[in-house]
Design brief:
The chain has helices at 39-42, 56-60, 112-115, 134-145, 167-175, 197-206, 234-244, 269-278, 292-308, 323-328, 345-359, and strands at residues 4-16, 19-26, 32-38, 50-54, 68-72, 89-91, 99-101, 125-128, 151-156, 180-184, 192-194, 212-217, 248-251, 255-256, 266-267, 283-288, 313-318, 335-336, 339-340. It contains 11 helices and 19 strands.
Length: 362
């Protein structure tokens, strides 16, 4: 199902690399909506432009993806790429807005020679998280003890495909908290494009020269309330990739003290499934030493997870003193599942604990 409507651009409200946000008036009904245009795909809208806009998610009232998406600007088409521009990797394949990019590892890439036979991360710490919202918290914890660490963010295709959708990544890049972005799988728009998580990790180590890699899906994770039906399953697969390539896999726990759903209270069932059932390689499991009943719950869940792994997961207890201050230094507002730091501090402290642990390995 797809719902496309015609409208007129009223005003451009903000710009960031690869994306323009605007207000748009729909011709049918006259409603004014927020719309997002990806400049590499449809060009750069201006006030007065006519637009075709996908309102499917908007009409369904979705959270993260609840905006109109510009499909085309019929009177302002994107510029033609230069003749001979390299790159033949197609992403968002066989959709009307498929795009062709230069893969970091393809033959036309200047990095092909470095990556052609690359097979090791040489111990690179790789922090894996379920939710995109964990990214700034992880880096806050890392920078608290390793402020000069070079961080590569690998965005997988479990959520948003265009990296430009993320205001968080734009702000982290502008502030220097993220030094390189790598879009993998069907995701696109990073500083570096990679075909798989494996080549993305190798590019983080050998091209971006990162000190730490963070792997998480883009905004807008998908979950169905079932044991296996959630896009965060990729977290376990990313740990496998890091381990197979000789990195240091670090499993960042998704924790909540405020989620109304029992399956996400304490350690989320997403982490329990991805790290306990999907991941098959040895990995470090930073466990935040939270206070009170929530802390007891998390430690008990972590013990059970480690025991079930038969020693594959290595529990690493992390003290939290000083991490609240580090989180408040974030250049982006911390928010997860509609909750900020005050509403659910455990979510952000747990992610920051994984970053603090990674700093201890540098």
């Amino acid at each position: 199902m797809i719902r496309i409507r015609r409208g007129s651009i009223l005003a451009v409200t903000s710009r960031r690399p690869g994306a323009v946000e605007c207000t748009l008036r729909l011709h049918e009904g006259g409603a004014t909506v927020t719309a997002l245009a990806y400049t590499d795909l449809v060009g750069s809208p201006e006030a007065g432009d006519e637009a075709l806009v996908n309102v499917t998610a908007l009409e369904r009232g979705l959270g993260t993806g609840g905006v109109g998406l510009v499909v085309a600007l019929p009177d302002r088409l994107p510029p033609e790429p230069p003749d001979g521009q390299p790159g033949h990797v197609v992403k968002a394949r066989y959709t009307p807005l498929q795009t062709m990019v230069l893969g970091v590892d393809e033959q036309d890439s200047p990095h092909h020679g470095v990556l052609a036979d690359a097979d090791t991360l040489d111990g690179l710490p790789v922090i894996v998280a379920d939710l995109h919202s964990a990214l700034p918290a992880i880096i806050a914890g890392l920078r608290e003890r390793a402020p000069d660490a070079r961080v590569a963010y690998l965005m997988t295709d479990g959520g948003a495909l265009p990296l430009a959708f993320s205001r968080t990544v734009a702000a982290l890049g502008a502030s220097g908290w993220v030094t390189s972005t790598i879009s993998v799988g069907q995701a696109f728009g990073g500083d570096v494009e990679a075909v798989t998580v494996h080549t993305g990790l190798l590019a983080a180590a050998l091209v971006a020269r990162a000190d730490v890699a963070v792997v998480a899906q883009g905004p807008g994770n998908l979950g169905t309330g079932t044991r296996w039906g959630f896009s965060g399953v990729m977290a376990g697969e990313a740990l496998n990739a890091a381990g197979i390539l000789g990195g240091r896999p670090i499993a960042s726990l998704r924790v909540s003290g405020a989620d109304p759903r029992d399956r996400h209270r304490g350690i989320s069932h997403h982490s329990l499934t991805a790290y306990g059932r999907v991941a098959l390689v040895p990995a470090d499991l930073p466990v935040p030493l939270l206070d009170g009943p929530l802390g007891e719950l998390v430690r008990g869940q972590a013990d059970a997870l480690v025991a079930a792994s038969s020693g594959r997961l290595r529990r690493q207890d992390v003290e939290l003193a000083g991490l609240e201050e580090a989180l408040h230094a974030s250049p982006v507002t911390l928010a997860t599942m509609g909750r900020g730091y005050r509403q659910d501090p455990a979510s952000f402290l747990s992610a920051a604990a994984a970053g603090r642990y990674a700093a201890s390995l540098l």
